[in-house]
């Protein structure tokens, strides 16, 4: 035996192993293919041998060859043989080879099922590991179905090494066998809290991957992930979770609100750029999902933009790139915040890295406004000049066009300028985008009527200088613009100054070198020009000129008749014959011009792309019906099928259907006129401008007088630069009459909502230099709004869109093998195989029972919680809200109500550090400990609750968690100190701003009772608006206390001279505002109202009424509730951070007047005192030394308020300074009140 | 998800290719060529992200790569992966290789592709990141090679001796990748430790 082994190994010694093969290939560089083919022959020989070692060696070499691109599928069976070797070494080689070349189509895979199952249950963890790894690459639906149960068992293996692999591979199993998702999900969820970080990470990975595709099914896991996010220290896991939240927030805005705080903290605390970046990304996603305009989030946006700026300014190109990438996401919803960094983005255009330049270009797209478009495009044009001969230049070109043409040319104020830009772009050599420029030229010339004359002049110049464009060769894509030029000159020939000259230019022999389709257009439009020339000379006694023109055509056209291009040939010969005939008539002195012109009469309207596709089948039209039956459709054609097209107003029922009878036509015309009269953006046709041709229905096309402030005659090629100057001058002139501007601005805002309708238009707009009408592209009546983005039906993730919250049915079990062949098994394995599935079964049924119990319990508990919550509200949320932990514990029941509950409760202590950070930097340390104490209290309470289902194990876990949390807190505290010294100012600014709203400091709430009756309770909080110095935002929480449904709530306030409720445009000064929601019994919701105030130095009260309808099953009654809204001076203050040096300067300046206040018998620690002032009165701590602190705040109108707070046993003295004494007096009074209450 | 992991040298010669989706051998080669073409024309000091490999699917995907001495390490990932996270992962991968091969160089990868695969399998499984902790990866990889050695036992000895002899006349001296010397700015490596 031993001899045999030694003999075998000596044989093997001289076999080629992998290293030899590689070496051999490297030594045969010239005839590599030949060498490899001999090697493959050798391998085939080796595979025929019985010795498994030889086979394994051969398979190993095959794996290498596979990488080089050789097909090795022929050896699949041998690979399976090697996989089933009992030796780990060979097994691993086999599995590696299989993972590299097996796929769903590999037929031998079905032979592996039993082998893999055996390996999965091997006592050697590495056998199992290798099998799992291999399987992850080649799992098929069959394998997934057969092995799902085995893998699920492995998820609870004792070794974390196996557990994590088993968890990870479940994702692949789900993909191939979606039925396994529901049965396996509870265990997968369990693994989120696995003690081993690797397993936990794997579970997070899998769920994130699942949730990314079908986020809504995983919303209920949000509390669990929230907990993980606040407790995990593994950055990889954090990144995944944060990315997941980014996918979840669009579905649940409340989640976003909850997230902002911990994310902001992470942004401040993490040193890992990757984590920071993902946090910023998710915050952006949150902000996008939240309704915009919430004043408290502007700070978050600012934080994001500011952090991104740091990234972009970093020397690391990767960070720069990512910064720009994230910036473009903000841009979509908060363009203003990004626009302030225009300098930086323009700077990135100069970056040497092309990826970065492209990103910057993307950003520019969203940054343009009417004001800066010219400037930005000018800069881009400079770049175009610099970037010779690269693909980047083409990219620039497309971007320029994109930027200018976006949203229906919304930002272009001067189309002459745009045409000149397009013409300038034609000077680029070798660009691929000639057709793009051409289509822009056509589009602008057709749709902007006012510009036609100018465009035609420019195009004529282009045609005249065509030799410059075509250059020496035809490789040039730019000659495409000649297509546009020729068409425009022909179609709008009436604007041509010298049509004869253009005609001549279009018939030069050199034209024959152009591509066929351009020549065809040349020929066709030469005919149009011819018609124009004829008409011009009509009536002149001397018909010499007209005849010369005919002669010119007859001389030149034969060149085109000989063209190899059929289109050109056909058109040319048609036209040639026509001209010959005309010439004959001319010689007889017959007037022909009118008839020739009639050939080309009629306006060509722009038709939207896909217009054809969008013609809806009219209601009642049955294409299979008898065609001769009286078609009732003709009548119903005009009636829109309302259900589908309710919103689509057909503005342009341009009648090309000449068959419509006169009456109908007149009726339509009338209706249209009516509509135009009502549409302030529509420019009425002026009688002065006569159309040359008058086709039916043409007169309603808006014709516009041109009010040109720029002389039109620009000889030669235009220079776009001169427009920039002119534009500036013009704008300055405009600034002079400011009065008008205000009015216009308002209108403009309204106009913006109507994109695609008729773009920027004359009167209503500040800027446009011309009276411009952008004709909308024609669409069939009743066109469907475009929403044909169908998702890929083959997406494997579709199958995984499964509701995971439903309790498992009995039928939903993973298939368990009932009968197995006995061949490959040792007795030990047998035992294993039998017991494991049984165990799981038992467990699962037990689980189910427990769950039922749990569910009932939880239901009770959640009811209790709700009651508690109500109580809390009664005392104005003075008590800490119930903790999310509780929810997480009861979370197994997975009821939607739980999630709602979790989301609606205020965000609380799992992030105890939040409290510290937000209240005030100085009070941080002590606060956190107290908060921690406060947090542990309810925990204990809960533990003492009689709870028989909870095992002791559970408790242990909890304790451990608590410990962890405490440790974390310690860390954070430490961290916070550090920050306080380095950049406290920047920190505060943000946190103070963001946290305010959801301030979790347990004993404090800014919501005060507004009014209450038996139906409804209103509590409110008043906050200054950061952006507007005369606005305050009142957030009112409405809570339905009754058992009935409350609806049609209207909120109204009696305005005073000083304070007014902001009502939507058009509403009268006494109209109420409709509260945008209804309240089912027991539900509360928040609405915000904006008030404008003039003077803020005095507190004031406004009387108001809430009216609503109480709807019960039988009846509904009108009810009302009066309230008094109290604007304190505090509510005009905004927490604003201040650096100590700036603070000192402020005090030194002497502009501030002083006042002071003494409070006796204040019985609380100093940091609590500070926290209260910060919280209730919107101050921030500038500096704190022992029991003395300086504080700062600013009013919405920019008053500085400075406090110096000193405390010595029970007496607090506050010295205050402010530039508005009465404001200060009132604020101090309010502070006094706050402390007298407690 | 990670769609593919490719390692090739400055001339585009593949040193390791791991596709987590199935492609035919021809397509795989084409992808490698295309990726090399995209990556190799980029300067040293530009960003490590690339959009638009046409073959490895769609707009959702990105190429994230690092260049060490003679080798490119390219990961093709979709949008569920964090860009900077993957850069870190590449760094962890290379450092792990460095530890396992003791000053890894291109020749190590050329001659021990199987070993590289085995190490990679401890980090990434089926396109998902399995482990980011370097010491854990190394522990598991070494435990397995130990098992392999013990299985080979006496029988493997002569083969090893022969291959040692063969190795003596290697055509060229190893060029170190020596990741320590090349200054790569790793923004946040501590994150994984």
From TrEMBL, chain A:
Source domain of life: Eukaryota
Identification of the protein by name: AP-3 complex subunit delta-1 isoform X8
From TrEMBL, chain B:
Membrane topology annotation: Peripheral membrane protein
Gene Ontology CC terms, in alphabetical order: AP-3 adaptor complex; cytoplasmic vesicle membrane; Golgi apparatus
UniProt entry tagged with the keyword Protein transport: yes
A biological process term (GO) from this entry: intracellular protein transport
InterPro entries tied to this protein: AP_complex_ssu, AP_mu_sigma_su, APS3, Clathrin_sm-chain_CS, Longin-like_dom_sf
Membrane as UniProt keyword: yes
Pfam families documented for this protein: Clat_adaptor_s (PF01217)
Main location: membrane
UniProt subcellular location: Cytoplasmic vesicle membrane; Golgi apparatus
Keywords noted in UniProt: Cytoplasmic vesicle, Golgi apparatus, Membrane, Protein transport, Transport
Domain AP complex mu/sigma subunit residues, every copy: 1-146
Protein family (similarity comment): Belongs to the adaptor complexes small subunit family.
Known function: Part of the AP-3 complex, an adaptor-related complex which is not clathrin-associated. The complex is associated with the Golgi region as well as more peripheral structures. It facilitates the budding of vesicles from the Golgi membrane and may be directly involved in trafficking to lysosomes. In concert with the BLOC-1 complex, AP-3 is required to target cargos into vesicles assembled at cell bodies for delivery into neurites and nerve terminals.
Protein name as it appears in the record: AP-3 complex subunit sigma-1
Organism encoding this protein: Danio rerio
